[in-house]
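Re: [help] complex structure
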Amino acid sequence: MNYEVALAGNPNTGKSSIFNALTKLNQHTGNWPGKTVSSARGQYLYNDIIYNVVDTPGAYSLIGFSEEEIIARDYICFNKPDIVLAVCDATTLERNLNFVFSVLDYHKKIIIVINMIDEAEKHGISINRFGLLYDLGIPIVYTNAKNNIGINELKEVIQKHINNEYDFPTIEIKYDQLTDKVNALKSKLTFTENKDLLAKRILDADESFFKSYYTYYPDEKINIEFIREMITTKANREYVIKTNYKVSKAIITRNVIYNKDSLENTKAVDKILTSKRYGIPVMFALLFLIFFITIKLANYPSELLFVSFNYIGEKIRILLVLLNLNSSIIAFLIDGVYLTLTNVISVMLPPMAIFFPLFTFLEDLGYLPRIAYNLDNVMKKCGCHGKQSLTMCMGFGCNATGVIGTRIIDSKRERLIAILTNTFVPCNGRFPLIFALASTFFVTFSSSFLNTIIPSLIATSIIIIGIIITLLISKFLASTILKGLPSTFTLELPPYRKPNIIRILYNSFINRTLMVLKRAVIVAIPAGAIIFILANLDINGIAITSHIGNFLDPFGRLIGLDGIIILAFLLALPANEIALPLMIMMYTMGGTLASNSLGGYQHILIDNGWTIFTAINVLLFSLLHFPCSTTLLTIYKETKSIKWTFVSFILPTITAIIVCLFTSFIFSFF
Amino acid sequence: MKIDMEGKRMKLCDLSAGHRAYINNSSANGLLNERLMSLGFFPGNMIEAIKKSNKNGLSIYEISKTLIALRSEESSLFEVDII
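Output below.
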């Protein structure tokens, strides 16, 4: 026996924290039925029964406005989960109840989960839980999912409700003005099931609903066109929403007391963070601060990892020699596979383990929508959607995630712009290269103060260049191949919330750092092996890597790089994080990675003709070049178009070449 | 100042910061109207302008205890009566 539990709710209500608290680590991603869009799924065991939990996308209503809302609606309506958890936020209960009422249209068995109940207390909100229960006739559970409070009670209530242990009548909202119309429509519908619902949706003229309806009930084709002609949609919907809000307001007036303005602090903080004068400077200052902390702290664990891995590597080598293994196999295993792998980890792990929690902190604080707010003006001028800055923020974590995130943009044209330019935001795979080069090549000052802040300034400038290029290319796209009118835009600014530090550390380590590391390891092992073989096999006395490097060299030189750098970027297509270790490996001929620190890296690079200008060009090329294969695959999945996938490869590549051509031309004067 | 304005009808985009009003009429249509309504922007609901920006910027409104930012293109779709 197992049951299906769906999570639904407005954005920013902490749905995913409930999902995490319920399922712990038993999570996986599946696909929505009939769609390639992935869904978060997980399960838990309670009293020997398996509960499968499905997290639907956050939605403001269940009328199909965006793809995410259609997914949520179709799942709740047509896949008929055993129970729906409507996640609400105590501070915005009025609006959340409107959502609950729209869920009731599709599914009668629901539980209201009032999450972040600690916030409610802090903001002076007191809720009469039993009054609310009495008025709504829906089981109510208080949770503070971030701290695991109320989760056991929730599991118990889920079980009881599924077993029909609650017998109170669920609220039924009367839409008096529509009753006649609904009945008139019902009489025209010939089939038996879902009459009420169909009639209501015909009144809404929600076309996306009928599309889905036909897919799930192909036999029940109806001609709704003639019915729809008689209907004044807008007035009906306005009436429905008005009624919903009226009921929800009445219930809240009876049962909820707001002792003070719950948005008071948020408004005060927003005075600075969204102000015209300070908004953008504060944004870049925060970015700088994050880089500063990351670069400052990452060096020590990085060196430690280098030294320990080298030590362990030597011990393994001795062991393998004792085992009488062939010396070229030992070299292959240690100098090829092991050293590439450990170098990738040493360069990558420390900055990621520091950067991710810092970034998640800003995310949990509720700062990211403020970035969208601050950048809206300039985004609008460049023909992008205001929410593109949110998908750019996601790109910091991973460009593939950023591409998936563009689903929040409803207009297809603006979504494509956001997809095609997402790679100009450096993802976690490219940060290690940025950090490594910034903290070695740019610390040539006599003042230790400058040496501390310059690398972070360089990293911040790279991001700013990325943003400027994003805007320029977006503007270019919006005025050439992706012309069109700007679409509408609404942005919710959720209240600031105090992040839970322990949860941030845990989540960013488990969900982000380890995942990224896993991917890098999977790519680094075969890449290390291949490079080692290519570097040690020779044709006419010259290693194969050198042949390829020499072939690419004239082109590389032209844009201020060299053949090996180009080859490394090409080989790093599956995962950008291995680009720098691959360069080092190919430079140190014979495939031996002789470096044991970032400083060692720099020596190898300088010995191979690198200057500060090469470093700048590599930084720019890394920022602007083609996205990794995972991102390209995601773009194909999201756009279902080979053409746009190709554009998303070629457009950044051309941009990178043009920019590097330009900079190396400038540098040629020095 | 505030008293003089009472009951005055104007476009939402002209409502200055710190003033409250009831939404009287919306000329938003289709799915935009649906989204705005589900955020609380429907006739009869109370709204307060928290922060006003110039023509090109986003303005912040408080509605149903949430903060929503709108461009002037959207906020000009609503007629409001100042309280």
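The first helix of chain A runs from residue 15 to 23.
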